[in-house]
Amino acid sequence: MTDAGQLLQQLKQAVAESSINYVAKRIGVSRTAISLIVADKYPAKIDKVLQLFEQAYGQIDCPHLQTELSRQQCREFAGKARPSNQLGLAHWKTCQQCPHRS
């Protein structure tokens, strides 16, 4: 797990590269919460928000594709039904044994 300070900087960077609305929707929290966090004015602990951010934006090394994927991309593929084509099936089978699978 990444340090909370690093995650906060990554969250701020994600907002700078896109928008508060986009980040808020992607991690499933209110726009207001993200706005307050970015402005360092959030009145409560931000641990849960940072955890959601890490889940959505954290990168993992995909052993099948041999490249980095977001945790969201990883979950989406691993959660699909068993593909019928050989290429998709090979990737899906790798996902079923992957240590990143949650």
Description:
- The chain has 102 residues and is mainly alpha-helical.
- Helices cover 60% and strands 8% of the residues.
- A hairpin with a 4-residue loop joins strand 1 and strand 2.
Largest sheet: 2 strands, antiparallel
The tally of strands reads 2
The coarse overall form would be elongated
Helix content: 55-70%
Tag the structure with descriptive keywords:
single chain; about 60% helix; mainly alpha; elongated; about 100 residues
Concise description?
Helix content is 60%, strand content 8%. It is mainly α and 102 residues long. A hairpin with a 4-residue loop joins β1 (59-62) and β2 (67-70).
What topology emerges from the helices and strands here?
Elements: H1 4-17, H2 20-27, H3 31-38, H4 47-57, E1 59-62, E2 67-70, H5 71-78, H6 86-97
Antiparallel strand pairs: 1-2
Helix pairs in contact: 1-2, 1-4, 2-3
